[in-house]
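Data deposition worksheet. Section B asks for the primary sequence of the deposited chain exactly as it was used as input, without tags or linkers unless they were present during the calculation. Section C holds the resulting structure in token form. Section D is free text for depositor observations; keep each observation to a single sentence. Incomplete worksheets are returned to the depositor.
Section A, Depositor: J.P.
Section B:
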Amino acid sequence: MPRTPEFELAEKPVDRFTRLRSSVLLPFIVLGVCLATTGTSWFVLQHQDEHNARAEFVAQARQSADEIRETLMGFEEVLEAGAALLAASDTVSPDEWRRFIERLDLPHMYPGIESLNYAESLGPDDIEAFTQRMRAQGNPDFKIWPEGAREEYAVNALVEPFGPAIARARGFDLMSEPTRRRAVERARDTGTMSMSGRVRLLPDTTPNPRPALLLFVPVYRRDSAPDSIAERRAALVGYVTAALHVDTVVAGVLKQRSLPLSLSIWEGGQTTPDALVYSKESPRTDDLPTFSADVPLSFSALAWTLRFGVRRSAAPIAPGNKPLIALAAGIPLSLLLFGIAWSETTLRARATRLAKEMTEAVRQQAKLLDLTHDAVVLRDRDDVIRYWNRAASDTYGFSAEEAIGRTVDELLKTRYPEPIERIRETLARAGRWEGELVHVRRSGAEILVASRWAVQLGPDGKIDSILETNNDISERRRLEASLLQSQKLEAMGTLAGGVAHDFNNILGAVLGYGELAQGAVPPESAVRRYVDSMMSAGLRAKSLVERILAFSRSGVGPRVPVHVQSVVVETLEMLSVALPDNIRLEQSLCADDAAVSGDATQIHQVVLNLCTNAAQAMKSGGRLIVKLDVVGFDAPHTVITGALPPGRYVRLCVQDSGSGIEPHLRDRIFDPFFTTKGVGVGTGLGLSLVHGIVTDLGGGVDMTSEVDRGTTFSIYLPQQGRVEPISNEDESIPRGNGAAVLLVDDEEMLVRLGEEMVAGLGYEATGFTSSVEALEEFRADPQRFAAVLSDETMPGMTGTQLTEKLIAIRPDIPIILMSGHAGPALAARARTAGARDVLAKPLAARDIARALANALSPK
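Section C:
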């Protein structure tokens, strides 16, 4: 018991010490953490300066490499322009070459190019004639140097800018020096620009010559397009060469950089002394570059290694003040926190933690706004921009510095879908608004954006700020409009093709029975006149169906060389009979044997539609002039349907003296079903069909018109060599010898007509309206029939399906398919199934007779 007070007295100092230790230790822990944080911040900022400097250095190095490559691409364009000039002319005089170089303005536009030359490719047998020619041009002392016999020469013939220093380069043989020769041979055999290794330019006689390179572009004969090495060597004329100083090219690029970059260039991937092309400054052991980066550069046949460096003495990479600021601010702050923690340890720790969390949240939100693809703009109640994210800069072209502080309407020239007062009422009422706005980019281009607005209210309950999010939907709207137009045209084409197909079956019966009636009545009788009129109307209907099928692209045949002049002559002969007496047809056809790749029917439709439109435009009569010739263009030729590439074209001109076309209608003349004629006069498909056929064949359409003076349409079709003219000799209708023919068509009227036509041609016809019944009849006696004539589109079993089954029973049976919707796709299916031929409805007796005769003729 006596010990208890003593024990209690001893306990109290221990408890006090424990509590004192806890209260003192925690502030020291805070102080230690703060000092450690300060030191860590100093270390991180120190290395961050180094990292930022390295990143800036690498970015400028890569940008410099890209600009060097773009400079070389510009040099290549200069050489290609010189090659084009030389290839386009048999000879280029020194004066012409000088004027061409002066127009290029090399010192200002292409600094680094010391001279632009032309070296002519020669063989040993060409030396004497070349030397005499050069002396005849005013160079009496001209000679090829250095002397010596070589298998191939590349001698400088044109040298510009010509002066005392450059003059000695004239006559120099590039094949005499190994470095130049390797580059020349590479350009000759690849057909692309080639670059030599480091050379001494001929005017440079200093002990330490400036680093220089030579560029070479081959020049081939203008009538050749060589593909192989042998063809290139055979077609070679010479080389356009450019001599350039590497230091001038590099200096023009590096002087734009904020960092004092050093640069060394090696050829290929080896950084050996032998491969060194250029070095801006020699490395020194006492001041080595702090940063160094190797950037590969490849261009044409060129492969370089570019080594960039920056020295420690460069100011932009010197240590910054941020680490010192961190130390200067961190130590006092640590002491301050130590004092606060001493008195309010728990409260301060909680406040510090909350502050860190809030700071990180704000930082993450700012990062997220910069990561979004939508343009985010924050503006105050006066519409002044206070925040502008990275996507807004990408969308509109204005940087954040340029945008912040200006109003949205001033910066972007906004066009609203409704009055701005109504939008503000919606914002005040609902707190948000959505709609589409038109903004103007920095470049002046208008864009359509989907815009969403949300507001933040201030303490007074009024709008304090507006957060606007915009998404550029201009391209999406254009694609939607283009897709809608394509779907409309596709639907119109499908409808047109389907209607024409069904109408062909009806028209086939009309023309078929009309043809039979023509042969059954006396030529001079009234009934014959009636039948002839009916056949004329039917043929007009057939022509209309052909136009509709061509418009729907279902009647286009395979492309073959077409003798254009024969087709034009045939069409004009047919047209001249139908022209009114008050229209005089004049023609000048000078295309001879020129051919185009296409379908003769297409050419016929183009001529017929243009002439028909021209005749309908001359209600009071006039002159219809048709011209056909061949023209050539050395440069792109612009017509109203686009630009035609250089080449030779067959040109068809149709000129009338009619009413002309009003200016406001000229943009619509090629629209399907658009016509200015009265009801029943035109279909509106003529010019649309012409436009579709010509552009599909790779050509173009041009048009000139004056109101009340007339119109001229010019058609340009790419010439594809020459072809023999079409024979116009009449062919007799071949007749059969009583062979049995199986006839299949789901239209009973066409079956009856076909039986009469086939029987009239000397065959025994057996007709069926069901493909299934026809198959059963054939299976019962496969050797009975000599040939099969079948429609393609039938219920139950199509013509191609019937063909496959008949071929499986009897492989040698000749089968001919008929269709009112014939085209390349059906022809391919028919050949695969085993059919011999495909005929387009409506058919004439001559068509059936010729097809049966070909199918039954011995192979």
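Section D:
The chain has a mean pLDDT of 80.
The radius of gyration is 43 Å.
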